[in-house]
Amino acid sequence: MLDHSSENVRASTSSGTSPRTIEPDLVSELLLGMRLVGLDYRRIEVTPPFGLAFGEVDGRAQFHFVARGPVHLRTPAGILHTMNAGDAVLLPRGGSHALLSRPDTKCQDVRALSSAPLCSTVSAISACDGGGECEDERAIVFSGCMEFDLGGLHPLVALMPETMLVGTLIERYPEILPMLEAMEREAKGARAGFAGILARLADVVAAFIVRAWVECGCGDATGWIAALRDPRLGRVIVALHNRPGHDWTVAELAEIMGASRSVFAERFQEVTGMTPVRYLTELRMRLAAQWIAKERMPIEAVALKLGYGSQAAFSRAFKRITGHPPGSHARPR
Questions:
Q1: What tens digit of pLDDT does each residue of 243-286 get?
Q2: Residues with Cβ < 8 Å from 104, sequence gap 6 or more?
Q3: Which tens digits make up the pLDDT trace of 43-62?
Q4: Does residue 103 have a cis bond before it (omega within 30 degrees)?
Q5: 70: preceding bond cis by omega (within 30 degrees)
Q6: Where does the HTH araC/xylS-type domain lie (predicted)?
Q7: Which secondary structure element, helix H or strand E, spans residue 133, and what is its range?
Q8: Helix (H) or strand (E) holding 62
Q9: Are 32 and 242 in contact (CB under 8 A)?
Q10: What is the rounded CA–CA span in Å between residue 26 and residue 215?
Q11: Which positions ≥6 away from 140 have C-beta within 8 Å?
């Protein structure tokens, strides 16, 4: 198949300004809640022919960096990308995919290969034949499974391209190049402490890819994300995200936008597909689910933080939006 899945990324990061871009202040505010942390990294050194299959891990992103290539990436949609030394890719929704020495190579599950721990979050996989004679033919890849959460903006993940290739960013963001060069040196050299350094660099590069996509207007994403491209509506979205527990009124939000209440309400509905009240309620419930499940915040404290007068009122709203009571998201202590 032809390589089309990264067109959204490439188009949104071309040089020059665009009316589709999002103001820097909005990007900063909206990405404050971003959490992108590597949970399980692998330094993989393998001799061709090879096919490494990566299964889907629910709710996790996947990151790959090629220190020595070429390597072919087959995406969850079956599209092929050729990655050379210095290339990196983020798959924000993960999904079943493969790294191949040739497009027609048979695959084996990467988890079936023997590995050795390098540090708490990094292991090494070496599947090389032929001793030192074929060392230059060996592919070296640094791969990671990542926790990727955007807090109240988590639905944005569903709007991202299937694959986000760093090569599409270098022309507009040349400052990422030294990070990629450092990753290449660390992965090839395997010096003391390289595993931890690679893991931190990978976290930064992956976050950089996400920021660049948002900063450039989120590609061709439509729906409520269009509000971020409208500077006046964008200020309203930021205000809601900054103070989700405030008892917002249409009049207050219209004032932030600099419009009458009727014009604001009509514009908000037109762009986001929902009323301001509905948007705020869904935002609150996404935050609530995160705070209850991941931060183990008591339900009563969540209700208070989000502006509900009682736990019962919050629980009714939560079940109405999510279909489940808030207690179903709580993890045992």
A1: 999 999 999 999 999 999 999 999 998 888 889 999 999 889 98
A2: none
A3: 999 999 999 999 888 778 89
A4: no
A5: yes
A6: 234-332
A7: none
A8: strand 60-68
A9: no
A10: 9
A11: 43, 44, 45, 66, 67, 68, 187, 188
